[in-house]
Structure formats: C-alpha cells, structure tokens
C-alpha cells in the first residue's frame, strides 16, 4: 500500500521542482532585463546631466569666475552685492576656491528672503582660527531715508583706509540712484523694504543690515548710522576705539517714567518682565558675537512685534531690552552717537550751518567722562547727529584743517 504512495509523492515532487525551476528562470530573465534597462537609463541620464552641466558652465553660472562679481562686471545683479576690494570683503582673500565659494554665496544673496538671510547670517564657524591672513573690519551700516547729503564728509573719512571697513546702505526700495564708481558708496545698497519709523519694519531694516554685514566674516564691529550722522574723529581713532573695546555700545537704561516702564505691556510676561524692560537710543554699535545673537533672535522679536506698537516705539526698546537679556555684562550701556535732547520734545535738535563751530564740536568730543575698558576717558562719543545738509561745507573745511 505504501509503495504507490511513495512513487506518487516522488513524481509530484519532481513535477513541482521542474515547475519551480521554470518559474525561477523566468524570474532570472525578468531581473536581467530590468537590470539592463536600468543600466541603460542610468547611462542616458548621466549623458544628459553631463551635457547640462557643460551648458551651465559655458554660461558662467555654475562655476562663476571671481571677476564676474567685481563692480566692473557687465551684470549689475552680481556687482550689486560684492563691491570691489576698495571697501570689500574679498580683497584680502585668496583668489581660489574659497573666493569662488563666497562669490557663489553672494550671488544667491540678492534674491534671499529676510528669513533666509538671517539663517545664513547666524552661522558660526567652529574652527576659531581663520586659515589665511585677514584684517578685522568695521561695518558701517547706514539706515537712510533717501540720499546721503553728508556723503562727501564720509568719503573723506574713509579715504586711505581701504580694507579696514565695509559699508552697507539700506535706502527706501524706490531709491535707485547710484553714486559714481569712485565713491565708497558705489554698489553698497542692500536689498531693502519700506521702513515706518518707530515700527517693527525699522527693526527689520536694522536686522537686514546686520545680516548682510555678517555674511562678510571679517566684519568684527557693526555700527548703525543715519544720513544725518557725522564722524567726530578721524578713521584711525574710531577704528581703534571700536576694535580694541571689550564691550558693545548699546544704550540701555531703566526709565521709571511713562515713556520708559510706562510702555511695558503686561502681555510680554513671562518672556520679558518689567524689571528687564529697558529703553535706549536706536543707534547702536555691537561686536560680532552680539550681532549674531540679534539676527538669531526668535524669542523676543515676536513678543515686541505683537505688544510694542505706538505709543511704544520698538526702536527705543527692542535692542536695549534684548542686549540686557542676552549679554548685559558685555554691554557698556551707552551709545557712541551723541544727540541733543536738551530742547525737549519728541525729536532731538537738528543742527544747521551756523551751529557748526570748533568749540561746539570739541565740546562733544571731549566734554564728557565715561568708562572705556574699565578706564575713565573723555572720549565718549565717536559720532553725532542730527546734522542738516547745510552743515556739509563748514564740516568739510574743518575736517581738512
Ligand atoms: C578693485 O580691486 C583691485 C585689487 O585690489 C584694485 O586694483 C582696483 O583698483 C579696485 N577697483 C576699484 C574701482 O576700486
Ligand atoms: C588658496 O590660496 C592660498 C593663498 O593664495 C593658498 O595658501 C591656499 O592653499 C589655497 N587654497 C586652495 C584650496 O587652493
Ligand atoms: C587721527 O587723530 C589722532 C588723534 O586726534 C592723531 O593722533 C592722528 O595723527 C590722526 N591720524 C591721521 C591719519 O590723521
Ligand atoms: C550694563 O547694565 C547691566 C544691567 O542693566 C549690568 O549688568 C552691566 O554690568 C552694565 N555694564 C556696565 C559696563 O556697567
Ligand atoms: C571729567 O573728569 C575730569 C577729571 O576727573 C574733571 O576735571 C572734569 O570736570 C570731568 N568732566 C565732566 C564733564 O564731568
Ligand atoms: C578684554 O576681555 C579679555 C577676555 O575677556 C581680557 O583678557 C582682557 O584683559 C580684556 N581687556 C580689557 C582692556 O579689559
């Protein structure tokens, strides 16, 4: 009884095996065909990409030559960003892949959103030593409502100090007038947006200036200026004062009055408490480390934007409070920009031609006492505002003497 059963089983087994072998060979064939067609596809794709890259190369887009980004370049969209060497970033950089990498980053810059700009600007190298020769620079950031009537004074101020400074100009978006190529302000405008004084858009403009200036890693100090500001000393003195200081210079004080604590909004709590709330002049001077903190701030900025609206003026409280929260010990709590509030009112005095005398300027230059790196000094202000365009001629003639 068992015999036939076993034969049947063996037969069945052999049939099944042969069927499986057939199915297996079909699998192998299908796999081979698939592999072949995949390989063919990859080859075609590679040829296509290769072709494409060659096209891009010929358009100088993918691997731009460094000189594409100099102001002499025929394409304004490039030169817009990277100014020459005279005041700029690349002058002391090696002209090789590093330069090209930076140039490529700059190329992207003018089309960046604010968010993307802040993100890029907030990056920090984890290698402290820069592997080539560089000079720390001071970034002079002009937040202007239009042209710079005192530009000739600044031209004279910067003359001969190329490589020690960078200039950034945030002008209204419609303002497209470009100074002559010989000017230090040539191609220094950054992409801008409309600014409403006292509103968040003003802080946005300041952050945009800092963000742009941070992209140049040789900028160590960041000064905010307006079109009515003047320098009170020569470049060397101002440069040394800033570069050698251990502190930032951001005006920050606790004003118990209604224009100080009175502008605090309870809804800011617990992010900002009343005792942390500060007031101060808008015109700051910060070191790089604090500049990175400012563009990286995602905690305090939204609170201010939502709860500090006129009669709370964000430009009078945001930096002052932020610095007090983030780096109180590294701030001098004073501004370097002199302004005259003695006449009262909501705007400081504006000076015209007849006000500008040697005695007047010396009074601002040496008439105060303050602390610098822990030592008392009479040089407390490096800049002054607000100067009417009519002061240009007397200021120029005094500067030359
Ligand atoms: C641009 O930089 C180069 C090299 O530093 C210099 O020779 C040239 O004069 C500069 N051009 C301008 C317009 O400043
Ligand atoms: C770039 O140039 C500098 C100086 O010209 C050189 O020391 C450095 O090795 C170069 N780097 C590369 C990646 O070629
Ligand atoms: C800049 O001013 C300082 C102090 O007033 C003076 O000693 C120095 O010679 C001046 N430098 C130049 C280049 O004029
Ligand atoms: C600035 O003020 C903060 C607190 O408001 C304080 O901690 C810091 O020591 C002050 N800085 C200087 C240089 O006095
Ligand atoms: C500054 O300090 C000096 C010396 O201590 C003093 O003679 C001078 O009157 C002070 N100036 C002011 C404006 O306080
Ligand atoms: C500045 O700070 C550094 C490090 O914090 C310190 O070594 C140096 O002595 C300080 N300089 C002055 C003038 O306070």
From TrEMBL:
The primary location reported for this protein is: membrane
Q: Where are the transmembrane segments?
A: 21-49
> Where's it found, cell-wise?
Membrane
Annotated membrane topology is: Single-pass type II membrane protein
Q: Which Pfam families match?
A: Branch
Query: What InterPro entries is this protein classified in?
Result: BC10-like, Glyco_trans_14
A GO CC term assigned to this protein in UniProt? membrane
Looking at the keywords, is Transmembrane helix present?
yes
Q: Does the keyword Glycosyltransferase apply?
A: yes
Record's keyword terms, sorted: Glycoprotein, Glycosyltransferase, Membrane, Transferase, Transmembrane, Transmembrane helix
| Source organism superkingdom | Eukaryota
- GO MF annotation, one: glycosyltransferase activity
For this entry, the protein name equals Core-2/I-branching beta-1,6-N-acetylglucosaminyltransferase family protein
Which organism is this entry from? Answer: Quillaja saponaria
Instruction: Cite the source lineage.
Output: Eukaryota, Viridiplantae, Streptophyta, Embryophyta, Tracheophyta
């Amino acid at each position: 009884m068992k015999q036939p059963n076993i034969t049947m089983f063996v037969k069945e087994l052999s049939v099944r095996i042969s069927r499986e072998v057939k199915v297996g060979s079909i699998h192998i064939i299908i796999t081979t065909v698939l592999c072949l067609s995949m390989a063919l596809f990859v080859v075609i794709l590679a040829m296509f990409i290769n072709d494409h890259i060659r096209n891009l190369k010929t358009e100088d887009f993918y691997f731009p030559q460094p000189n594409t980004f100099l102001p002499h370049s025929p394409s304004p969209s490039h030169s817009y960003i990277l100014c020459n060497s005279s005041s700029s970033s690349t002058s002391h950089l090696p002209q090789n892949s590093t330069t090209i990498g930076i140039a490529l980053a700059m190329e992207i810059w003018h089309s960046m959103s604010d968010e993307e700009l802040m993100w890029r600007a907030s990056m920090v190298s984890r290698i402290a030593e820069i592997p080539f020769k560089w000079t720390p620079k001071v970034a002079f950031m002009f937040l202007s409502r239009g042209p710079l009537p005192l530009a000739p004074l600044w031209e004279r101020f910067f003359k001969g100090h190329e490589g020690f400074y960078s200039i950034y100009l945030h002008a209204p978006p419609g303002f497209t007038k470009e100074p002559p190529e010989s000017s230090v302000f040539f191609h220094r405008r950054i992409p801008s947006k409309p600014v409403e004084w006292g509103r968040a858009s003003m802080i946005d403009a300041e952050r945009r200036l800092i963000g742009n200036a941070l992209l140049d890693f040789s900028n160590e100090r960041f000064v905010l200026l307006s079109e009515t500001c003047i320098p009170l000393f020569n470049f060397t003195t101002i440069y040394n004062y800033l570069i050698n200081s251990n502190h930032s210079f951001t005006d920050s004080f606790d004003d118990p009055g209604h224009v100080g604590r009175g502008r605090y909004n309870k809804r800011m709590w617990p992010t900002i408490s009343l005792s942390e709330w500060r007031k101060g002049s808008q015109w700051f001077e910060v070191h790089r480390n604090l500049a990175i903190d400012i563009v990286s701030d995602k905690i305090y900025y939204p609170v201010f934007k939502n709860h500090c609206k006129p009669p709370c003026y964000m430009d009078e409280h945001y930096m002052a409070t932020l610095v007090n929260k983030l780096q109180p010990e590294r701030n001098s709590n004073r501004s370097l920009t002199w302004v005259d509030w003695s006449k009262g009112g909501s705007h400081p005095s504006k000076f015209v031609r007849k006000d500008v005398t040697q005695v007047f300027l010396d009074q601002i230059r040496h008439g105060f006492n303050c602390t610098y790196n822990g030592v008392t000094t009479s040089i407390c202000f490096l800049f002054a505002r607000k100067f009417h365009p009519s002061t240009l001629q007397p200021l120029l003639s005094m500067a030359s003497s």
